[in-house]
Each structure stands twice: as structure tokens, then as C-alpha cells.
């Protein structure tokens, strides 16, 4: 299926689709309920960055002529898989508490060791969730340092919950902690700063 259709570019992927498990749907409903009083907000998620969304950042870091050609082909890594095969996730933010929660069902194309989530895939979704937590305050942010302890392996295709918390801000430096728990909250799989 072509990813570059106009419709697809503006499609919000942070909503249920037929590949979602019952566990992910239940977590989604739980968090959508928390959004009712406005304390939590579901964050829409698109395959491509909005045009001009990071123009000053791109001007500083990238060659504009190269960017033009690339932009139409570029995809957000975590949104570049067919439905259900990669990262099925939704992020919710609570700006008052400086928190971002990400509910995630990892697809079969994220395998590392047989039957387990690839460590790089876990790093990716931690980077995106902690990055979003900093971005809620810093607007345009880059990850300078990411330290991770993998405590328990994550079974492939299971549902997990990431909790990112802003711990400290010093000027333009943001310090964020992030944990990955099993969907039932009983197992701490990963912790990161
Ligand atoms: C519209 C957009 C929509 C977006 C949707 C969401 C999509 C999300 C996608 C998900 C994407 C997720 C995000 C991604 O994946 S971002 C991609 C991965 N990250 C990068 O590529 C960043 C590469 N690094 C750099 O560009 C520079 O090194 C940065 C910018 C980070 C700092 O270089 P800069 O020249 O600017 O500043 P500085 O060197 O004077 O340092 C400044 C201060 O920082 C301190 N420091 C520096 N390094 C470290 C370190 N390693 N540990 C601890 N501290 C460190 C340093 O001591 C100093 O502190 P102080 O002495 O001032 O106190």
C-alpha cells in the first residue's frame, strides 16, 4: 500500500485499528476516560512531520536543498510499518504533572532474540516517549544522552506501558526518566534516563 497518499499523510495513527489486541484497547479506553476532565490529552501521531513544523531546527542542522527531496519520502520511524507489524502505540500527556504515558503493542517485525522485543526497538519507543515529554516543554528537542537498564525481556507482541516523567530542567537541558512496565503493571521490564 502506498504510504505517500495525501490522505495517509494527514492520517492520525494514534487511534485503534483492527490489529489491536483487547489489552491495548482496554488501556486506550482507560486513558481516554482520563482525558474527559482535561487532565490528560491524547497526542495525535502522523507518519510525517507537519510541513514547516521544525523549520528553524532543519535550517540549523540540515541542507535545505537535500531536505526538499527527502521530505516527501521521509517517515517517522515508529510510524513506518504496516498496521500491526511494528509499533502500535498512543501517547497521552499530563502537562500539569510533566508526564507522558505511551501504551504500546509491539508487532512481530520488532523481534530481536526469538520471541522477544528487540532492545533497539525498546530504545526507540523510550526515546520517542521521553523525547515527547521534553518536547512538551522544550518545543524542539534532541536526545543528548539515553541510559537504559533492561531488567526483564519483553515478550514479542505483548502490550506494555511507558511512563516518562520530567525530573529536572536546567535552561535548555531537560532530564527525563522513563520506565516500561507490562500492561498489568506487575513487571518492570526497562528503566531509562
Ligand atoms: C513538529 C515536530 C513534530 C515532532 C513529533 C515528535 C517526533 C518525535 C521523534 C522522536 C525523536 C526523539 C529524539 C531523537 O531521537 S533526536 C536524535 C538523536 N540525537 C541527536 O542526534 C543529537 C546529536 N547531538 C547534538 O546535536 C548535540 O550534541 C546536542 C544538541 C545534544 C548538544 O549540543 P550543543 O552544541 O547544542 O550544546 P553543548 O554541546 O554545548 O551542550 C549543551 C549542554 O548540554 C550538555 N550535554 C551535551 N551533551 C550531553 C550528553 N551527552 N550528556 C549529558 N549532558 C550533555 C552539555 O554539558 C552542556 O551543558 P552545560 O555545560 O551548558 O551545563
UniProtKB/TrEMBL annotation:
<keyword id="KW-0999">Mitochondrion inner membrane</keyword>
<keyword id="KW-0496">Mitochondrion</keyword>
<dbReference type="GO" id="GO:0005829">
    <property type="term" value="C:cytosol"/>
</dbReference>
<dbReference type="GO" id="GO:0006631">
    <property type="term" value="P:fatty acid metabolic process"/>
</dbReference>
<keyword id="KW-0378">Hydrolase</keyword>
<dbReference type="GO" id="GO:0052816">
    <property type="term" value="F:long-chain fatty acyl-CoA hydrolase activity"/>
</dbReference>
<keyword id="KW-0276">Fatty acid metabolism</keyword>
<dbReference type="GO" id="GO:0032587">
    <property type="term" value="C:ruffle membrane"/>
</dbReference>
<dbReference type="GO" id="GO:0051898">
    <property type="term" value="P:negative regulation of phosphatidylinositol 3-kinase/protein kinase B signal transduction"/>
</dbReference>
<dbReference type="Pfam" id="PF03061">
    <property type="entry name" value="4HBT"/>
</dbReference>
<protein>
    <recommendedName>
        <fullName>Acyl-coenzyme A thioesterase THEM4</fullName>
        <ecNumber>3.1.2.2</ecNumber>
    </recommendedName>
</protein>
<keyword id="KW-0966">Cell projection</keyword>
<comment type="similarity">
    <text>Belongs to the THEM4/THEM5 thioesterase family.</text>
</comment>
<keyword id="KW-0963">Cytoplasm</keyword>
<feature type="domain" description="Thioesterase">
    <location>
        <begin position="115"/>
        <end position="187"/>
    </location>
</feature>
<keyword id="KW-0809">Transit peptide</keyword>
<dbReference type="GO" id="GO:1902108">
    <property type="term" value="P:regulation of mitochondrial membrane permeability involved in apoptotic process"/>
</dbReference>
<keyword id="KW-0053">Apoptosis</keyword>
<dbReference type="InterPro" id="IPR006683">
    <property type="entry name" value="Thioestr_dom"/>
</dbReference>
<dbReference type="GO" id="GO:0005758">
    <property type="term" value="C:mitochondrial intermembrane space"/>
</dbReference>
<keyword id="KW-0443">Lipid metabolism</keyword>
<dbReference type="InterPro" id="IPR052365">
    <property type="entry name" value="THEM4/THEM5_acyl-CoA_thioest"/>
</dbReference>
<keyword id="KW-1003">Cell membrane</keyword>
<dbReference type="GO" id="GO:0005743">
    <property type="term" value="C:mitochondrial inner membrane"/>
</dbReference>
<dbReference type="InterPro" id="IPR029069">
    <property type="entry name" value="HotDog_dom_sf"/>
</dbReference>
<keyword id="KW-0472">Membrane</keyword>
